[in-house]
Design brief:
Strand content: under 5%
Number of domains: 1
CATH class: Mainly Alpha
CATH architecture: Up-down Bundle
Number of helices: 5
Helix content: over 70%
Distance between the termini: 37 Å
């Protein structure tokens, strides 16, 4: 797939260029899935834990696909590294049944969202 094809794919997903507004919903969903997985661990529901972690991981994959990682960009490749790290935390949470890992995941996503939304507001002059 060429860079032009990927950019076109992203544009069709969003009726134009991807924006921070779509990511806001993705980050909210990631935090929701982490909380549900943590509740499942605490209640001993291993199937629900695995399902919520799988959903979070799939969403991270979708969010990775929309990143602009073409030559000369810096944000897309940086976000890929962050999303890869978050995926690793989800793996740790799933394998170890770790609520602490899910707490780390949720805090990291919240920090990411706050930082990115703060940068977007600053750049927009709001």
């Amino acid at each position: 797939m060429t860079i032009e094809m990927m950019s076109g794919y992203r544009a069709t997903m969003f009726d134009g260029d991807a924006s921070i507004d779509w990511l806001r919903h993705g980050w909210r969903a990631l935090r929701f899935y982490a909380r549900k997985a943590k509740d499942a661990i605490n209640s001993g529901d291993l199937m629900m834990k695995a399902a919520m972690i799988e959903r979070a991981n799939r969403l991270l994959n979708v969010m990775s696909v929309i990143l602009d990682t073409s030559e000369g960009t810096t944000l897309g490749p940086s976000m890929m590294q962050i999303y890869s790290g978050l995926s690793g935390v989800l793996l740790r949470a799933n394998v170890m049944g770790s609520t602490e890992a899910l707490d780390d995941f949720e805090r990291a996503v919240e920090t990411l969202a706050n930082e990115m939304l703060g940068m977007a507001e600053w750049a927009g002059g709001k």
